[in-house]
Design goal:
By secondary structure, this protein is an alpha/beta fold. The protein is 46% helix and 19% strand. Strand 1, helix 2 and strand 2 form a beta-alpha-beta unit.
């Protein structure tokens, strides 16, 4: 016990000195998806700016697989020294451990929040062949032929999938969910007309909506998305519980010294207020958003309370 106390005291005394010299080498941002897409894009927008702030290389390491679990486990088990960080999102941070059944990490136990990076609302979009111009018409179509419409999901337990699971009982409709291994194949099949609709991040859907390859019916934000201002929110249309967004957040392994977390948060807050960075996120249909570590913790707790019951009720499990 005495040795433990001495070691703990040494760690506390050494933390400020460590933080003053940190970083002294490359910092890794571990991304739970392949290159391309919402989360990887967010990481790449901030990486070079963070490198400039820290004065050391900041590299992105894509570790895809198991719904983000592989990347999450990698960071959770890494030394808490500030050199290995997790650029996570809803699925990898909140849902993947539950869906996998492994419970190999818990966000509230195994990670320390640093900041959010971006928030992206989702949009319900349909293939042009679907004879529905409004959400009401879409629901009427779904009610006439229960299970006939096919919804493209980028994977079980993604925010896209969970919104579908929440909406069906809320609206009294049903359809068939077709799971894909990622957003790209799901989007390709929607564009080709092999499936009729999906829920997708505006950052991904925007080009297809603009060129008429899909039709947007409603967005999941608390307010209209300025990228597609003519598209109403679900709340406007009477579905107040249908709100949701994809977040990206920067997390560190539990035990990372508080001064390092504070240094990272300060750097990221400046970066996410940089007009150039704000414009880059806006261009892809996302909003650059910095939060304090406490704000992130409260936000994640709220998301956990909203969506974990949906995961459990739908009995979503990794295949």
């Amino acid at each position: 016990m005495r040795r433990f106390l001495i070691a703990a005291l040494f760690a506390v005394l050494a933390a400020p000195t460590f933080a003053q010299s940190w970083p002294e080498r490359t910092v890794r941002l571990v991304v739970p998806y392949p290159p391309g897409g919402n989360v990887d894009g967010a990481a790449r927008i901030v990486a070079n700016k963070l490198q400039d702030k820290l004065g050391q290389p900041v590299v992105i390491e894509n570790k895809a697989g198991a719904g983000g679990l592989i990347a999450g486990e990698t960071v959770a088990k890494s030394p808490p020294d500030g050199y290995t960080l997790f650029v996570g999102a809803n699925g990898p941070i909140l849902f993947a451990p539950e869906i996998s059944g492994k419970r190999s990490y818990e966000w509230s136990r195994d990670f320390l929040p640093i900041t959010t990076i971006s928030l992206t609302p989702l949009v319900l979009q349909v293939h042009p062949s679907v004879p529905a111009k409004t959400l009401k018409e879409f629901f009427e179509l779904a009610k006439r032929d229960p299970g006939k419409l096919n919804m493209a999901s980028p994977g079980a337990g993604t925010t896209n999938h969970l919104l579908s699971e929440l909406l069906q009982p809320t609206a009294g409709v049903s359809w068939t969910t077709v799971h894909y291994k990622g957003n790209a194949p799901a989007t390709n099949d929607l564009i080709a007309g092999h499936v009729q609709f999906n829920f997708d991040q505006i950052s991904v859907a925007l080009p297809f909506i603009k060129d008429g390859r899909t039709r947007a019916l409603a967005v999941t934000g608390t307010k209209r998305a300025h990228w597609i201002p003519d598209v109403p929110t679900f709340a406007e249309l009477g579905y107040k519980d249908i709100t949701g967004q994809t977040f990206t957040a920067l997390m560190a392994p539990a035990g990372t010294p508080a001064p390092v977390i504070a240094k990272l948060n300060a750097a990221m807050t400046e970066i996410l207020r940089d007009p150039d960075v704000v414009a880059k996120f806006d261009l892809i249909g996302a909003e650059a958003v910095a939060m304090s570590p406490d704000e992130v913790r409260k936000y994640l707790a709220g998301e956990d309370a909203t969506w974990m019951p949906v995961v459990r009720k739908a009995n979503i499990k990794a295949e």
